[in-house]
Amino acid sequence: MTPTYWEQEVVQVKAHRKPERFDVVVLHPPDAPNELYLKRVIGLPGERIDYQEGVLFVNHEIVNDAFAYRTEAFAWESISGEPIPEGYYFVLGDNRTISKDSRIFGLVSEKQILGIVQEGNKKE
């Protein structure tokens, strides 16, 4: 998650609630259930995610994403012909060029998400 977070950085995790777009979550990745990852929620249940020329599209509508310029082209159809199922999320790391995220290990279930990181001084 560099540059947002650094390896070994201590973060505060808030009580679990349904993640919202751009929340940073702590999760067990589907392909390594004993590991912990920090990833940013990009896609919510019922959505299709695409990145084209450094722009995020959610259900074919442009959505501002501070890290989109670092994201290589990605088409939702490379994962599925159906929208994100209920109870699942599409997550990306902020260092998009090297991040191991939903583009590699697929969607993350709500059960794999342990909590949401409190960023900065934001109160939840």
Automatic annotation (TrEMBL):
Family: Belongs to the peptidase S26 family.
Membrane-protein topology: Single-pass type II membrane protein
Catalytic activity: Cleavage of hydrophobic, N-terminal signal or leader sequences from secreted and periplasmic proteins
Gene3D superfamilies linked: Umud Fragment, subunit A
Domain Peptidase S26: 1-118
Chief location: membrane
Compartment list: Cell membrane; Membrane
EC number: 3.4.21.89
Keywords: Hydrolase, Protease
Name of the molecule in the record: Signal peptidase I
UniProt-listed InterPro entries: LexA/Signal_pep-like_sf, Pept_S26A_signal_pept_1, Pept_S26A_signal_pept_1_CS, Pept_S26A_signal_pept_1_Lys-AS, Peptidase_S26
CDD domains: S26_SPase_I
